[in-house]
Please model this.
Amino acid sequence: MTLSREQVVRLDKAHVWHPYTAMDVYVREVDPFVIDRAQGPYLFDMDGRRYIDANASWWLASLGHNHPRLVAALQRQAEQLCHCSLAGTTHPQAAQLAAELVAIAPPGLTRVFFSDDGSTAVEVAIKMAVQYFGQRKGGQGKRRFVALEGAFHGETVGASSLGGVEVFRRPFASVLFDCVRVPSPADDACFGSAFEAIKELLRTDHDEIAAVVVEPIVQGAAGMQIYDSGYLRELRGLCDQHDVLLIADEVFTGYGRTGRMWACEHAGITPDIVCVGKGFSGGMLPMAATLATDRLFEGFFGGRSRALLYGHSYCGNPLGAAVAREVLAVMRDEDVVGQVQGKAKRIASAFAAMGAMPHVSRPRALGMVAALDLSLPISSAASRDFVETASDLSSHGYLGDAGWKVYDAARRRGAYLRPLGETIYICPPLTIPDDCLDELLAIVRASIEEVVQSIGS
Ligand SMILES: *Cc1c(COP(=O)(O)O)cnc(C)c1O
Model:
């Protein structure tokens, strides 16, 4: 039976609980996109309308939707082996994927632990760090974590504990573990003091600190806040000096998003642990990995009592692994990261030009990420969801709805352009064709102009 659009919306509104969504407002007021097909940079709704996917469907579809080679790899693997555990068993896809990942990872990361999504990749990193020091001679006191203001590392309780976006943290604060918060180098007001703060903290408290966790170069959920690679280089040196692990959460930034394969490449550093997700499977299947160095890995030698006590049911899933291998093959064959360079220039210059518009500030861009902030003196009672409040790096969010007005304007023009509060950003598929990218940039500009003119005057 084929459902009509109205039937889908009725069932949805009767039963589906949407993420980060004020459901009473949603059921009453929101007319959702109803997507039943996607191809390349486009989403198609049930009325046959086409939308450019400006955020690669929550930052995932790095090679576009339904890439024919990824679909074929999934079909081939489904006929062979859909799942087996990695407990005393292995399979060709997991073994080859691990080797292929190590070959392109920052040098020195030689071990791969598979899990399901970005949040679990971070959970793995947390448990690795805790157990590593817990069973290392003299390391027992090192069990605290340090993370940045505005950090976002995922949704599970452990990953949320590292999170520095106050609105996401607050409802769960009573059950989150203690995390030391340091100023973000992406905050212009704190740039100099951010270096001093982390330096001083590691100097005085390194006996208690297991790891510093960062989103390298770009803090995504905080509103695409970009910081100088010098901070990462400095941090690498400080962590080495004080025997603290450096964990880089490349779930968003990895796989070419910032114009290099890894954001850490901008700084030329190798972290002790790297988390990957999102683009890792081209956004097709839940599949993630946590990479570690030999030093860390060998900390778990010494028999059963010292083994890493961690593992999810779908760890190393063959379907996900087959697709993830094909992602790497496509990236190599199509020189995806090389192709990004020209597109990145177009994006950067378009956003820089938008920075001259009234009520627009802080245009910023790196690789296939760009953002700007709106500042319109309006307020609104009904916030459509909570993500919008995340755009404030420090603690309290905005309640304005200019970002959502731009979203509506872009939708009418044929783009899916979710805001982060009053931050308008794009992170399209890396493979978006140039003409489609130019169309998207024109839509962003026209949508902002429309909203600024309607309410800014
Ligand atoms: C999205 C994200 C996560 C969480 O990934 P999920 O797949 O949503 O669990 C973790 N870290 C960063 C930096 C992210 O952007």
Summary: Residues 15 and 327 are 34 Å apart (CA to CA). The chain is about 40% helix and 15% strand.
